[in-house]
Amino acid sequence: MVTDINNIELILTIDLIFIIIDYLDGLDRLKFCQIYKNDKIISKIKIIGDNFWDSDLEFIFNLKELKYLDISGSELITNCGIEKLKSLTNLTHLSLKSLTDIDNTCIHLVLKYLTKLNYLNLNSCSQITDSGLKALTKLSDLTHLDLGNCSQITDLGLESIDKFEYLNYLDISGYIHLYKDDYTSGIRPQFYCVTDDSLKHIGRLSNLTHLVLSQITDFSPEGFYEIGRLSHLKYLDISYCDITEDYMDMLTNLTELTYLNLSCGLITELDFIIRLTNLIHLDLSNCRKLFICKFHQIATLTKLKVLSLSNVVL
To answer: Which of 26, 189, 190, 257 is the most buried (most CB within 10 A)?
Structure first.
């Protein structure tokens, strides 16, 4: 991690492939950018902090061999900053998490220049809409897509999700305003609209191994049946989804599951669990309708290593 500008010139004399940049200000930032106008080959950059501006991305322009770029949380970066990345045609990994000033214009810039992407994180990019998601389907090689907390994406955008035929990771977790203890005190969080129609298209992603549906409540047990078709699923997060026993039978086909998060669900029984014999991590925290006397089925999970029971009635 680069935190002392006086050491940068020395650091850059070695053959770096991954550099983490943390809080450069004023003249320090200018000096760093000047140093990086050379042709040094570097493949990974991660920028930490929220004090980076569009102009600070100019030093990246010449790094044409860059394959990995993470500028998550740099909230001052806009579409103008993303445009400075257009020379990075070899980029395969791009994280724009929590860049709240970028919108669908950014998506079109990505599609035009960054065509080799297989990893894209847009979590909490709240101005990305359904039309932006539909446009993204042109990235045919995408294997990892994070759309969590993208509050303007709905069923209309997700109806095109099955066009990502190589996708193995998908996060569409809901948009939630939740303060500490709000859920347990009865205050209803705010979720965004993803329904059975979306699950139908997600169920066609035959290569999916990781799925995050946390904080989504507008689907029925019949809609959830589509998730049971994802036979290669290994990781499933359905926390804060008001899940009951009516949904659980749909999971019994997911025999490859190693991680299951049911926290804050409404289940009262665990009969379904005995068929999930490969589970390693099970989260039942805040399942307040589930009593410890119902837990004898867990003894059948011989591979289980992590069991979370926070706020479960013992």
So the answer is: 257
Backbone angles phi, psi at 70, to 5 degrees: -125, 110
Which residue's structure tokens are 């969590």?
148
d(C-alpha 238, C-alpha 283), whole Å: 10
Is residue 200 within 8 A of residue 225, CB to CB? The reply is no
Range 172-179 average pLDDT: 59
What is the pLDDT averaged over residues 254-268? 94
Task: Note the pTM of the prediction, 2 decimals.
Answer: 0.85
Q: What is the mean pLDDT of residues 149-169?
A: 93
d(CA 137, CA 164): 6
Give the integer Cα–Cα distance in Å for 15 and 23: 23
In the chain the beta strands, taken as DSSP E runs, fall at 18-22, 44-48, 68-70, 93-95, 119-121, 144-146, 169-171, 210-212, 235-237, 259-261, 281-283, 306-308
- Which domains does the chain carry? 5-308 (3.80.10.10)
Give the strand pairing for 93-95 and 119-121: parallel
